[in-house]
Each structure stands twice: as structure tokens, then as C-alpha cells.
Design a protein that fits this description.
- The structure is a single chain.
- Helix content is about 60%, strand content about 15%.
- By secondary structure, it is of the alpha+beta class.
- It has four domains: about 220 residues, no CATH class; about 80 residues, PAS domain (Beta-Lactamase, 2-Layer Sandwich); about 70 residues, Helix Hairpins; about 140 residues, Heat Shock Protein 90 (2-Layer Sandwich), CATH 3.30.565.10.
- The protein has a five-stranded antiparallel sheet. Strands 7-9-10-12-11 form a five-stranded mixed sheet. The protein has a two-stranded antiparallel ribbon with strand order 6-8.
- A hairpin with a 2-residue loop joins strand 4 and strand 5.
- The termini are close together.
Length: about 575
Amino acid sequence: MLCFIDRVGILSKSLQNAMLKNTTSANANNIYPCPFSRDYSIPSEQAWRLLKVFLSYRLVLGCLFIYLFYQHRGPLPLGPYGQQLFLDGCWTYLLLTVLSMICVAWRITGYAIQAQWLIFTDIIMLTLLMHACGGVNSGMGVLLAVSIASGGLLIGGICSIVFAAIASLAVISEQVFADYTDSFAAISYTYAGMLGAAFFTIALLAHVLTQRSTQTLQLAKQQRQTILNLEELNRYIIQHLQSGILIIDKTQALQMANEAALRLLNLTILPTHLGVISSPLSEAFSTWLQDAEQDAVLLKFTDQSEIRSRFMVLPAGRDVFYLCILEDMSLYNQRLQQSKLASLGRLTASIAHEIRNPLGAISHAGQLLSENPQLSPQDQRLTEIIQTHSVRVNHFIDDILQLSRRTASRRETIVLQPWLEDYLAMFIIEKAIDANLFSLSMVPARLSAFVDPGHLKQIMDNLCQNALKYGNADAGPIILRVFLFQQAPCIEVIDNGEGIKKEQLAHLFEPFFTTSSCGTGLGLYISKELAELNQANLSYHLTAENHSCFRLCLLNAEQSLIEI
């Protein structure tokens, strides 16, 4: 799934570049070419380019007419019925074209005015040249069809029909004038009418073509916006995934990495090569290239965190990249923990219920027996032992039931500084202890954690009670320290005890392990399980003074992560 998401992000970028090359978005300078046409939002740069193409056509046509006139090329001489009119018309046509090119190059006039002026002058000048060459029978009227088609493409809308009507009236008027002045030997009103009908047909086709072109541009604009939205969505998803994403090439050069990858690898900037991040990761990638079945490796870092990496191929056109997915093992521990708690809860609930009933009977019988005045001192001592161990077993059952009654983590954002101040004040009142036994040390920065408040309180209760029990109160207060460690807000509980022996560290967070004669050995185990349930990490360290330090690193609430 992650490969698909990232591949869509790369493809959407390619599609976006292709769309930007073929279409330009309509900006605030949308043109409204004709007062009779509808609101066609033609992209301004594309419209100006079309206008330049039409001007180039006019320039070539004007130069060609002048060249053919002076060279007397062609089957018939140009302008036989009015050479001076034809020559003046050609030079005027060429001069108007050059002036229009200057206006278009410098954007002296607006697009709508310039386009309408070009089509209108084209109709007038070509009609005069047609008259100088012998009217509609000369075939020059066909060039008016190009003007009508250009008007439909450049301006569009009903305005193209208006230009077709003007061109038809110009041709008919030319024939009427020629007939009235007896300029030609033959007058062809039929040919003029057919030419006018052709103008209207071309205008209608140009109008339809313009509508389709406009719809295509609008669709392209919508698709471009959709691609941009998809790209932003892909980028957001990839950057805020809990799993780290690394994109590398065959030479192990890093191309991209998301925020989670930098966070998991304890990096602030992206290195240039995979080997800089981790030598085992680089070796695992080389091994995977040779054997595709070995696509996973477990990385261990100095902060005791474990990261599982997987590799897969990521085709991207002609190039081939490789995707490395980094997954925090705490996520797996959380899911396993939830599954384990579900089964453990059902088991412990039934066992605890079956034990508590006879235990209550034993405790009650022992209490009644202790009230017998005829008991000897030895028997009275035995009843005290019964009561003491009954209470101990009952506490053990309460701890077991805590595992079965614990629900899924309901995390929320907690600002640690005020929360710890309130917690410590309530803990001192509940335990009825001296406030000087604890000292709170916090950094000036505002640290927020994403954790279940009830679970956090239970963890802190266990840690603080152990610090009171095993720490040396005479050597100084118990320190609660809040700080930022590797972009994670952490809480440390430091007492003045001698520390835990090395042979006991391996079993410290195991259930039922305790060094006390009256403990159940479940406090640290439950705290560890609650921490993993909240994607936190509870660990033990020795300070520089060899004092015991329990460190709880929580999930940073300032980092927006997407769980998948």
C-alpha cells in the first residue's frame, strides 16, 4: 500500500508537468472577445500565441502577393482589373500586419480589440484585392474562408457568425458594385451566394470547434487541479506516516525521506548515501539486490529502539528506484499487547474470581479464630500469619485483575509540566508524605505528549512508589525530570538508591519478578505493558552517580502521525 501511495505521488508529479506543458491555466486576465459571444475563458498566453500565428500567415501572404505582382508569376497576372488598387492594397495589408505585430509584441492593445481588428481588416482588404483581380471568379474569395475560420478560432462564440455575415455582405457588395460600374465582363451572383453560404458553414464549424476546445481546456484545468490535490494529499500522507519512507537508487544514493524516517533514524537532515545512516542497512540492501527473498532486516540503535526495514522495487518510468520502509517495532508491540491483553484478561478474570472466593473464606475464618480468647500465644501468631498472607494474596489478585480490566488506550494530548505538578501534589496528599521528598525539574519549553491520562497516572504511581520504597530518602529528594530526548518528551524518576544489580536487569520488567519479600512483582511489568500500549518506552538507566533512573519516553503530540 505504501508503495502504491508513493508511486501515485511520483506519477502525479509527472502528469502535472505534462499538463503544465500542454495547457496554461486561465488567470485574472480572461478575455471576452466579442460582445455577442459567451464568456469563454481562453488562457491568455495560448490566445496570444494563436494571434501571432495568424499574423505570421498575414505577413507571408502580403509578401507573397507583392512578390508575385512584381515578378509576374502565376498563370494569370495579379490585379488585371486594377493594378494600382491591387498594389496599394497589398502594401496597406502588409503595413497593417506589421503594425499589428508591433502592438501584439508590446501588448499595446487588448487581445479582443486586436483580434477583431485583424479579422475585420482582413475581410476588407481581401475583398478589395479580390475586386482588383476580377471579383469572385478570380478565386481570391477563398482566402476569406481562412479569415472566417481564424475568427472562429481566435475569438469564438457567435462573433464568428458575425464575421461570416460581414464577409458575405462584402462579397455581395463587391459584385453589386462591379455590376453597377460594369467592371467585369461577367458577374456571378450565384458564386457569390455559394461563397457566402460556405462562410457561414465554416463559421458554424469553427464555433463548434471552439466550444469543444473550451470544454477540453476546462476539463484539462479540472484534471490539473485534481492532480495537484492528489499530489498534496500524497505528500501529506507520506510525510505524516508513522512508518519511515526512504527512496534510493541502485547506487544507494538517497532521493527522498519523510519526517518519520528522519525521526526513527535520529537525523535532522537527509544524508546523501544509505551507508551514512547505517552500515547494516546498507549491507542488507546489497544483499536484497542479489537475493530478493531477504527483504527485511532488524536494526538496533544505541537508545535501545528497534526498527524493522523492508525493501521493494519502485518503478518510475525509465528509471528504477527502490523503496525502504522503516517500521518502529513499538507499533508491533502495541498490536501484540492489545491482543495479549484481550486473551489474558479473560483468563485472569476467571482465575482471580475462583481464588478470591476461597481466600475470603480463609481470611474470614482466620479472623474469627483470632478472636477466640482461649488461643495460646503460639496459635495467635499462626492466625496473624494467616491474615498477613491472605492480605498479600488479595493484593496479588488485585494486580492480576488490573491486567484483565484494562481497556484499550484512549490517548489525548497532555501538556506535561502542569500535569506533573498536579499529579505530584495529589500523590503527596494521597500517600501523606513530606512534600520535600520529591523535586520536580522541567525544561522551559512546552512539552506535550499523546498518551492515555489514566495509564500515565498508573505508571507514575508504580515508579514513585518504588522510588519511595527502594530509594534512600536521607540522601536527597526523588527527582522527577521532564526533558526532550530525540524529539520525544520524556519523564525520569531518579531516586538515591544503590541501583539494580546487573544480573537482575534482564528480569526487571518480567512478571512476578521482585526483590522484596512482600511484593508481587507485577508493578513494573504492568507499567511496561501500559507504556507499550501507548507507544511509549519505559527503560531503566543508571545515572553518573549510580542512582536508579526509570525513563518513560512518550509519543510527541506535536508530531502529526497517520496510523496505518
